[in-house]
Recover the amino acids of this structure.
């Protein structure tokens, strides 16, 4: 009995909607997705729309979280690269400084030997 009553109500709503479309008071439904949304707005529980908004917001937060995590991973990767380059540059500089010192020491030693002669 309740189903029959609901079907009659839905048919009345559908006929009214078709009429509203014909006089251009409402937009024509073009696909199944639009029809489902229209029926949910009309007959669904108020909590459905609220929950839908919450789910959409949650999905947006998840996307933002993923972007943050990806950004953090990229930051960590770049920081590691920077540290490796810095370490390589430091080793190169230390090696250069050591070579310069050895060269100076060698020149100093040669200079001392030439003075002794």
């Amino acid at each position: 009995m309740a189903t029959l009553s609901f079907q009659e109500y839905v048919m009345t709503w559908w006929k009214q909607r078709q009429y509203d479309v014909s006089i251009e008071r409402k937009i024509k439904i073009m696909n199944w997705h639009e029809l489902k949304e229209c029926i949910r707005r009309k007959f669904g529980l108020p909590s459905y729309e609220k929950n839908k908004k919450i789910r959409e917001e949650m999905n947006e937060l998840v996307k933002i979280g993923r972007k943050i995590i990806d950004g953090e991973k990229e930051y960590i990767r770049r920081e590691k690269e920077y540290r490796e380059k810095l370490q390589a540059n430091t080793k190169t500089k230390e090696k250069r400084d050591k070579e310069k010192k050895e060269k100076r020491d060698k020149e100093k030693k040669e200079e001392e030997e030439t003075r002794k002669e």
